């Protein structure tokens, strides 16, 4: 990850660290590495979404481990300096600043973080479509619903999951959501 961190400009690295801290503090559902990667690539930096996701996972692990061990800023920086592959100076400065400013808040909420082992629902989009024909069937006129769920996994990576349903499947899906809503109203 250290090699990929060298590629990331300091201001984007700082933004990534801030988003990870906000995610660990449960202020945002996750880190949108796809959007951040696209902005970095517009500067001509050769980095992939996968590489940026690895950096984000590494930083998330670093900050959550430091919080769990209640490390001070100096202890964290000393630990980083003793690693096998050394981080670039600008990265250590950003980590020091972010941890110094917001590290204590993570330490308080880390117990709640340990209980969250599943992803978090962020958004849902749907659209209705009709398949008119295919190469094997000339006249389908088959309605379907496409649903796209935006989910943040436990490490904070935001991904989209899409699936299609027939109208009867969608009606069942909708009925289950209504049941969940009525149960939640009683809580």
From TrEMBL:
Residues 120-187 form the COMM domain. One of its GO terms (molecular function) is NF-kappaB binding. It comes from the Eukaryota. Belongs to the COMM domain-containing protein 6 family. Scaffold protein in the commander complex that is essential for endosomal recycling of transmembrane cargos; the commander complex is composed of the CCC subcomplex and the retriever subcomplex. May modulate activity of cullin-RING E3 ubiquitin ligase (CRL) complexes. Down-regulates activation of NF-kappa-B. Inhibits TNF-induced NFKB1 activation. This is COMM domain-containing protein 6. The lineage of its organism: Eukaryota, Metazoa, Chordata, Craniata, Vertebrata. The gene is Commd6.
């Amino acid at each position: 990850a250290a090699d990929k961190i060298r590629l990331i400009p300091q201001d984007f690295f700082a933004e990534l660290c801030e988003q990870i801290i906000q995610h660990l503090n449960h202020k945002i559902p996750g880190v949108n590495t796809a959007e951040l990667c696209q902005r970095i690539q517009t500067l001509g930096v050769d980095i992939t979404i996968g590489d940026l996701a690895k950096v984000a996972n590494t930083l998330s692990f670093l900050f959550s481990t430091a919080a769990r061990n209640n490390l001070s800023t100096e202890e964290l920086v000393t630990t980083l300096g003793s690693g096998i592959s050394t981080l670039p100076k600008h990265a250590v400065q950003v980590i020091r600043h972010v941890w110094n400013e917001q590290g204590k808040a993570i330490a308080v909420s880390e117990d709640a973080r340990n209980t969250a082992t599943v992803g978090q629902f962020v958004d849902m989009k749907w659209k209705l479509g009709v398949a008119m024909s295919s190469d094997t069937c000339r006249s389908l006129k088959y309605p379907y619903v496409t649903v796209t769920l935006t989910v943040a996994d436990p490490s904070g990576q935001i991904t989209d999951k899409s699936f299609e349903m027939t109208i009867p499947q969608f009606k069942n899906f909708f009925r289950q959501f209504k049941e969940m809503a009525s149960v939640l109203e009683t809580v």
